[in-house]
C-alpha cells in the first residue's frame, strides 16, 4: 500500500543487540525555546505567496534566468532568449515572442537512501560547479525552486542545511562515511562507538520534553538521520528550516528556494490514520509552513512553529521547533503508517529490540512503550481555532506523516508547484520503487495528476496510465508532458534507470558502503545526462524553451517528436 512499507516491516523485524548505555545528561541545543512574540502577524490565509518568498524568487529568478541563458547558448547559439526580469514574466500564455525565460523547479522524490543518492547524482550531473562536466551541467544553476519529499528531503536538507555545497563535496566529506556507518542499523546504533551519539540524542529528546513539548518517534529518527546529513556538532542540532534563510548562499540568492513536503493524518478528525487520496499536503520552507489545501488554507511563519496560537493570534511564542532534522524526519515519517502504539518491549531478553523499539526507548526512557500519538511528526497547531482552517481548527496538534505514504501515495513533491502558477517547467526526478525491481512505473506521478484534478488544480499536464508508461517505456527514459498546452506547466520527467549501477536498491536498505554511495551517485549523473546521449542537452533545452515564444534551434522539431508525450 505504501512505497515505504518495506522499510516499516524491516524496522520492526530487525533484531538487535542491546548494550548497557550510559545515560548522561548533556546541555542540549535541540529543545524549542521561548521567545518574545514579534509585533507582526504570524498566521495568514493562503492567498498567494508571502512577501518574503516573493522577494526571494524575484531575486533568484534574475540569477537563474542568466544561468539558463548561458547554458542554452552553450548548447546551441540559436536559442532566442529575452532577458529575464520578473515583471515581464507572466506565464506561457502571456508571452508573445522573445524567448522569455521560464521559471524552473526541480522535485526530488521519496524512496529512502536510494532516492537520496539517485537524486544527488542527478543534481551532480546538473551542477556546473562540479569538476566533471556533463552536457547538462548548468541546469542546477537555472533552478528557482527545489522541492524534496522523504528521501528527497534528506537530499535537499543536506544541501540547504549545509549552505548549498556541491554533491561532490557532500559525498566525499560526509555521506561516504556516514552512510557506511549508518546509525539506522541497530547494531551500529547500540555499539560502544555510538554511545556518545546515543546519549546525546536521548538528552536532546528529553530536553524537548522538559521544555514542555510532547516528543515523538520522529525526534530520535530525525536526530539519527541528521548525523548522516548535516555538518556541525551533534548532527546539526542548531540547524532549523527558518535558519536556512540566513545562510550565505541563500542571502545572496545563489540557490533555489527549498521546500519540504509532508502529509496530514486525519486520525484526530475522523479516525482515518492512513492518508486518503485527498490528504492535506503541507509544505515547510524557510519563510513559511502550512498548506494551500481546502480545510487548512493557511500559513505560519516557520521560525515561530511551536508557538501556541488561537484564531491566528500567538499566545506563547516559541522558536527552534522547526529543527531541520525534525522536519526531514517528518517528511520521511514511515512510522506514521503503523497506525498504532508501539508496545512496551515484551521480554526481558535483551536481543529483542528493533530500530522502531530503539527509537521508542529513546522517546520514553524508563517508560514502557509509546502511545499512538507519538508515531507522528507532532506540531502545535498554528491554525488552532483559525476559521479558514475548518478541517484542523479544532485540533491542538497537527499529526504529520511521510509525504509519500497513504492510499494514493505521491512520491514526487509536485504539489507546491501546482499552487505556484509562476512555475513553468517542473523537472520531476522520480526514484520511486513501484516495480518489483524498485524502479518507477508512473504510478506516483499519475496519483498526483489525479489528486490535482480532484482538487481543481489545473497546472498539471495530462499524465497517462501506468500501462502506457510501461508499454511506451516512459518510465525508463526522460519524457516531456505538456509540451503543447500553454495553460499548464511543462513536466520534464526523469526516472531512475540503471545506466551504470544497479540503482533499483530497496527502500529498506539503510546502509550504503562507500563504493555503493559512489556507484549510486555516478549512475545518477547518467540519469541527468540520459546516459551521455549526444542529442539530450539540445532536446532538454528545447523542452524547457518550447512554450517561451522565441525562435528555437532547427534541431528542436526532432526533439519534440522524440520526447513530447503530449
Ligand atoms: C555557496 O558559497 C560557497 C562559498 O562562497 C561557494 O563555493 C558555493 O559554490 C556556493 N553555492 C552555490 C550554490 O552557489
Ligand atoms: C476527502 O475524501 C473523503 C472521502 O474519501 C471525504 O469524506 C472527505 O470529506 C474529503 N475531505 C476533504 C477535505 O475534501
Ligand atoms: C508482544 O506481545 C504481543 C502479544 O503477545 C505480540 O503480539 C507482539 O508481537 C509482541 N511484540 C514483540 C516485539 O515481541
Ligand atoms: C506499477 O506499480 C504499482 C505500484 O507498485 C503496482 O501496483 C503495479 O502493478 C505496477 N504496474 C505495472 C504495469 O508495472
Ligand atoms: C539493469 O537492469 C537490467 C535488468 O532489468 C539488467 O539486464 C542490466 O544488466 C542492468 N544494468 C546494470 C548496469 O546494472
Ligand atoms: C562494496 O564493497 C564491499 C566491501 O567493502 C563489497 O562487499 C561489495 O561487494 C562492494 N559492492 C560493489 C557494488 O562493488
Ligand atoms: C502557445 O504560446 C506560444 C508562444 O506564445 C504560441 O506560439 C503558440 O501558438 C501557443 N500555442 C497554443 C496552442 O496556444
Automatic annotation (TrEMBL):
Keywords: Glycoprotein, Hydrolase, Lipid degradation, Lipid metabolism, Signal. Residues 36-566 form the PLA2c domain. It holds the Pfam family PLA2_B. Gene3D superfamilies: Cytosolic phospholipase A2 catalytic domain. The keyword Acetylation does not apply. Its EC number is 3.1.1.5. InterPro entries: Acyl_Trfase/lysoPLipase, LysoPLipase_cat_dom. Coiled coil: none annotated. Residues 1-20 form the signal peptide. It is an enzyme of class 3 (hydrolase). GO terms for molecular function: phosphatidylcholine lysophospholipase activity; phospholipase A2 activity. GO terms for cellular component: cytosol; endoplasmic reticulum. The keyword Zinc does not apply. It comes from the Eukaryota. It catalyses: a 1-acyl-sn-glycero-3-phosphocholine + H2O = sn-glycerol 3-phosphocholine + a fatty acid + H(+). GO terms for biological process: glycerophospholipid catabolic process. Belongs to the lysophospholipase family. This is Lysophospholipase. It comes from Cladophialophora chaetospira.
Amino acid at each position: 500500500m505504501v512505497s515505504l512499507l518495506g522499510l516499516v516491516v524491516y524496522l520492526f523485524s530487525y533484531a538487535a543487540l542491546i548494550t548497557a548505555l550510559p545515560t548522561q545528561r548533556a546541555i542540549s541545543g535541540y529543545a524549542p525555546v521561548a521567545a518574545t512574540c514579534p509585533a507582526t502577524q504570524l498566521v495568514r490565509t493562503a492567498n498567494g505567496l508571502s512577501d518574503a518568498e516573493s522577494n526571494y524568487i524575484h531575486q533568484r529568478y534574475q540569477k537563474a534566468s542568466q544561468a539558463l541563458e548561458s547554458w542554452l547558448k552553450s548548447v546551441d547559439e540559436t536559442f532566442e532568449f529575452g532577458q529575464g526580469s520578473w515583471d515581464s514574466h507572466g506565464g506561457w500564455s502571456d508571452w508573445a515572442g522573445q524567448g522569455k525565460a521560464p521559471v524552473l523547479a526541480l522535485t526530488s522524490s521519496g524512496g529512502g537512501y536510494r532516492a537520496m543518492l539517485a537524486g544527488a547524482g542527478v543534481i551532480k550531473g546538473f551542477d556546473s560547479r562540479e569538476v566533471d562536466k556533463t552536457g547538462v551541467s548548468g541546469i542546477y544553476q537555472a533552478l528557482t525552486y527545489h522541492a524534496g519529499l522523504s528521501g528527497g528531503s534528506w537530499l535537499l536538507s543536506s544541501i540547504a542545511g549545509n549552505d548549498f555545497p556541491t554533491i561532490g563535496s557532500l559525498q566525499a566529506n560526509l555521506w561516504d562515511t556516514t552512510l557506511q556507518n549508518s546509525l539506522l542499523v541497530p547494531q551500529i546504533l547500540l555499539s560502544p562507538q555510538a554511545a556518545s551519539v546515543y546519549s546525546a540524542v536521548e538528552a536532546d529528546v528529553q530536553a524537548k520534553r522538559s521544555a514542555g513539548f510532547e516528543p515523538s518517534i520522529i525526534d530520535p529518527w530525525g536526530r539519527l538521520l541528521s548525523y548522516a546529513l548535516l555538518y556541525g556538532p551533534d548532527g546539526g542540532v542548531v540547524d532549523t528550516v527558518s535558519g536556512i534563510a540566513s545562510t550565505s548562499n541563500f542571502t545572496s540568492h545563489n540557490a533555489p528556494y527549498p521546500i519540504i513536503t509532508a502529509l496530514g493524518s486525519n486520525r484526530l478528525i475522523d479516525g482515518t490514520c492512513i492518508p486518503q487520496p485527498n490528504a492535506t499536503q503541507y509544505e515547510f520552507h524557510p519563510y513559511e509552513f502550512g498548506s494551500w489545501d481546502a480545510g487548512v488554507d493557511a500559513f505560519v511563519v516557520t521560525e515561530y512553529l511551536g508557538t501556541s496560537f488561537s484564531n491566528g493570534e500567538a499566545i506563547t511564542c516559541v522558536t527552534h521547533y522547526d529543527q531541520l532534522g525534525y522536519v526531514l524526519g517528518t517528511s520521511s515519517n514511515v512510522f506514521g503508517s503503523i497506525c498504532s502504539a508501539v508496545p512496551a518491549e515484551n521480554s526481558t531478553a535483551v536481543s529483542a529490540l528493533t530500530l522502531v523499539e530503539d527509537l521508542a526507548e529513546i522517546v520514553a526512557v524508563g517508560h514502557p512503550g509509546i502511545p499512538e500519538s507519538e508515531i507522528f511528526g507532532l506540531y502545535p497547531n498554528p491554525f488552532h481555532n483559525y476559521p479558514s482552517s475548518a478541517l484542523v481548527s479544532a485540533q491542538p496538534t497537527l499529526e504529520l506523516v511521510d509525504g509519500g505514504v497513504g492510499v494514493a501515495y505521491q512520491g514526487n513533491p509536485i504539489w507546491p508547484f501546482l499552487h505556484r502558477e509562476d512555475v513553468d517547467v517542473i523537472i520531476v526526478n522520480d526514484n520511486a520503487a513501484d516495480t518489483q525491481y524498485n524502479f518507477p512505473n508512473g504510478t506516483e506521478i499519475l496519483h498526483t495528476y489525479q489528486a490535482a484534478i480532484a482538487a481543481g488544480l489545473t497546472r498539471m499536464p495530462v499524465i497517462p496510465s501506468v500501462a502506457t508508461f510501461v508499454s511506451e517505456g516512459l518510465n525508463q527514459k526522460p519524457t516531456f508532458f505538456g509540451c503543447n498546452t500553454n495553460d499548464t506547466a511543462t513536466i520534464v520527467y526523469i526516472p531512475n534507470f540503471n545506466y551504470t549501477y544497479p540503482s533499483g536498491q530497496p527502500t529498506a536498505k539503510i546502509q550504503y558502503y562507500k563504493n555503493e554511495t559512489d556507484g549510486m551517485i555516478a549512475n545518477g549523473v547518467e540519469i541527468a545526462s540520459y546516459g551521455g546521449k549526444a542529442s539530450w542537452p539540445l532536446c532538454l533545452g528545447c523542452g524547457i524553451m518550447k512554450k517561451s515564444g522565441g525562435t528555437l534551434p532547427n534541431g528542436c522539431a526532432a526533439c519534440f517528436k522524440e520526447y513530447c508525450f503530449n
